[in-house]
Amino acid sequence: MSVLFETSLGDLVIDLEVEQCPKTCENFLKLCKVYYYNLNAFFNVSKDFLAQAGDPTATGTGGESIWSYVASQEEKDAAAARYFAPEIVPKLKHTHKGTVSMAVAPSVNDEKGGCGSQFFITLADNIDYLDGKHAVFGHVVEGLETLDKLNDVFTDQDGRPFKDVRIRHVIILDDPFPDPSNLIQPPSSPTRPPDNSTRIAEDEDPLATLPDEEEERIRREKAAAASALTLEMVGDLPFANVRPPENVLFVCKLNPVTRDEDLELIFSRFGTIMSCQVIRDKKTGDSLQYAFIEFDKRDDAEQAYFKMQNVLVDDRRIWVDFSQSVARLNTSWSNNPKVGLHSKERGGFGGREDLEKTRRYRAAGRSDGRARDGYGMVFEVPDDRGTSRRSKRDRNMENPRDRRRRSASPRNRSRERRRSRDRHSRDHRSRR
């Protein structure tokens, strides 16, 4: 009756003494069947002495028998002893290297000691010190070279290997014992170690080296990821792993007089354009001489990229490339008047509505065709009472008919009657 341990250092085949230690062997085999030992670490390795495992917490204080484990898995509050009495057979001794024994826990407070799930494998011959204290129940018959590797691992002052040595998988080669009626085998082996180890992983090589080019690439990727995370935290990126769109072109070296509609007209022959935007200074409204053009399809953007490179537009030879910017995903940086901050949108001219109003006022011009040289009171300015007052210039330029209509309104008639009444009262008091 035997089991196969697949460890990170090699395989171990253990023959069990089922006739002389039936209870101990049944406990060991059933724990193997429920994957209790899978991904367990050898948490205590003493050179030329022993290697201990079987504690899921890897602290030396955990572990339990199969009967206690089964009781803990049931829905009802079933109680079972954590340990069972050790089967110490006098003729089974720690004579040869590879002897497998159950560790016997001492009695602590009211809890009676005994055997649970922890076991150890001797790494040398003739360790008589352990005879009669721990229960021998098996021997390693294949994999002695694996024990040699285990004996040579580097450990800390507590005997824990700096690099984890784990039991990757357990295969039961022969099991003569029937399963307990309430034992439920998990559908699959665990994929994560049961302990929270901070040691070097058992599949990690700390001395492995990469070519200089590969190390530089990894370093750049890590630096880029850190920078992207920083930009996300300060709000410049919507999320750190954002990628630039593949259907947006970046056009630069533009003439300052080139407008959005000019570029859209020129590039529209390659396909449907979703948006075309010349980037402008937020304060002055001047063109920064580059733009972003978003196509409906990626193929259209690729065709425009190959056809429009170094083309003459408004006496300037433009440069076209695929956009590497994700700033357009953040509408707060848009200078498109259709995208606004107030209410539903953010916008204005470079994100400022006051500049947009100024631009519209300049573009409107005067009725005689000449550009406006003065601003005056273009917009109504609320006074202290919350009403709008108009400039004297605007009132003087008003149509006389509108002025009479405004004075004939009920509100103005009431105001005139009030003023007339106050004037008569002052005249009456002065005559007295």
From TrEMBL:
Cellular component terms, GO, for this chain's entry?
Answer: nucleus
Its subcellular locations are: Nucleus
> PPIase cyclophilin-type domain spans which residues?
6-172
Q: Which UniProt keywords apply?
A: Isomerase, Nucleus, RNA-binding, Rotamase
Query: This protein's superkingdom?
Result: Eukaryota
* One Pfam family matching this protein: RRM_1
Question: Where is there biased composition of kind Basic and acidic residues?
Answer: 342-358
Comp. bias (Basic residues): 402-432
What does this chain do?
A: PPIases accelerate the folding of proteins. It catalyzes the cis-trans isomerization of proline imidic peptide bonds in oligopeptides.
Concerning its family, UniProt says: Belongs to the cyclophilin-type PPIase family. PPIL4 subfamily.
The protein's name is Peptidyl-prolyl cis-trans isomerase
Q: Which organism is it from?
A: Suillus luteus UH-Slu-Lm8-n1
